[in-house]
Amino acid sequence: MKIRQFKFVYIFFLYVLFVIGIESTYGWSGEHNGITAAAVKLLPSEDRNYIAPEASMLAKEYCEFPDQNWPCMGEWGGGNADPHLPRFPDTRREWDISFYCGWDPVLQKGKGYPHRPPETFTAVQHYFGKAVEALQAGRLSDGARFIGVMFHYIQDSGAFPHVQPIHRSFHTKSLDVIHVDGYVPHSLGRTKEEAAAALAERVRDLVDWTEKRLAPLLADAGVPIDEAKKLCAKELVHARVAGAVAKLHTEKPAEFESAACDCANECLRVCADALHTVLTLAPHPRPEPVPNAPDINLVFNPSFEEDDGDRVPDGWYVGWLDLGDRSGRAEWYRAGTHWDKPVKTGQRSVLLLWVPDKGLEWRQDWRHALHVNDGENYQGTVWIKTRAATGTTWFALQSCDTAYQPVDSAKSEIIKKDGDWQKLSVKLRVPKGACWLRVILHTEGNSGAVWFDDVEVVKTAE
Ligand SMILES: [Zn+2]
């Protein structure tokens, strides 16, 4: 291939990778969602009601957390610093995924687990315990997110991550084949510890089961499973194993697909048992979230003073509304040594600079968003300073439903001119169907700079 042709094919290949997502290329992306949704369906109705407010996000988002805990989230170049590719949305900080996974890949803090056996046996025990503890403390959302992480490790265990050439092509054509009608989930133990240990054994059996299921096919293709495991332990994608898998794909596609489907459904049974057990150990009836106290500032890290070391203030993340934009900057601003210090109080504020037409935002992450009830009233305020501003700047209180989609938004007055610190204020009555409230700090089409500081959200009588 000529160099130009090669370059084009390479860029196109990278584009395809980006469009279908890194996860689906290297793992069981759609299957994670399909197995999780099917596991919730298998639950007895009491369990299903318990997890109902978080069920859709468990299947859509939480079960993928470990595959989104990458340091490149929010950064340029499709994960590979490729200048032709857009920015990744910062999903990792949007959900504080590193908190739920227990490992921060930017700060290199905490403890993570590889997505393969035997480490997954320990991982599932750990996240099972975290899920039960969160639910016992009445924190349903946190519990559901830990369940998502636990699910991911169960699901990866049955998808041959330890034999990468299989893992990467072990997909079902359609998610509809993922169901085990009539399966009744059973409890794995009466205490957290007993059940967590039983789950680890259950996942060990799952790995054995999936290996036995695929063994005859691999032997047929010329590389028995034990040999495939040994080869891939030495080299992630060993050519002989990759060759055998490619052969199966072309010569026995139906058999290979049917094995992938059976393994997905075996994972489904384990997930259903694990979820049922977590919910059995949770307090009944489900504790209602404690209502917010009136007349105090409910915003976490409201003056942007706290940061764990990654230069993004804790509890906040950047919303890139134009992923292809190359100039906009969102910065954690530090008061300088000059007489002019664009911070309202303390040493820090947040800055939006050189912002494209589609806009750029600082948003509260979901872990620190406020749990609210319909009919409650909130007042939000923020201080804003602009310099050489050309665009429009505002802030908003956004109310969202259980699918974390906006229901309503109370927007402040729009600032278009330059000015020193001024206080903006909005009021919001939580509409029916909303249960989350978060603050959004926004500017768009702005070649100048905007600083925000001292955010406040207070629950009011009316
Ligand atoms: Zn994974």
How are the SSEs ordered, and which strands pair?
Layout: H1 3-20, H2 22-26, H3 29-42, H4 45-60, H5 91-94, H6 97-101, E1 103-104, E2 109-110, H7 119-136, H8 140-157, H9 164-167, H10 192-220, H11 225-234, H12 239-251, H13 253-280, E3 316-320, E4 329-334, E5 348-355, E6 360-364, E7 370-371, E8 377-387, E9 392-400, E10 406-411, E11 419-429, E12 436-444, E13 446-460
Antiparallel strand pairs: 1-2, 3-6, 4-5, 5-13, 6-12, 7-12, 8-11, 8-13, 9-10, 9-12
Helix pairs in contact: 3-4, 3-8, 3-13, 4-8, 7-8, 7-10, 8-13, 10-13, 12-13
Bound molecules: zinc ion.
Structure explained in plain terms:
By secondary structure, this protein is of the alpha+beta class. It has 2 domains: 3-280, no CATH class; 316-460, Sandwich (Jelly Rolls), CATH 2.60.120.260. Helix content is 39%, strand content 20%. It contains 13 helices and 13 strands. Strands 3, 6, 7, 9, 10 and 12 form a 6-stranded antiparallel β-sheet that branches. Strands 4-5-13-8-11 form a 5-stranded antiparallel β-sheet, with no helix packed on it. It is globular and about 75 Å long. The N and C termini lie far apart (70 Å). Mean pLDDT is 92; it is low at 1-25. It binds zinc ion. The site of zinc ion has 6 residues, from α8.
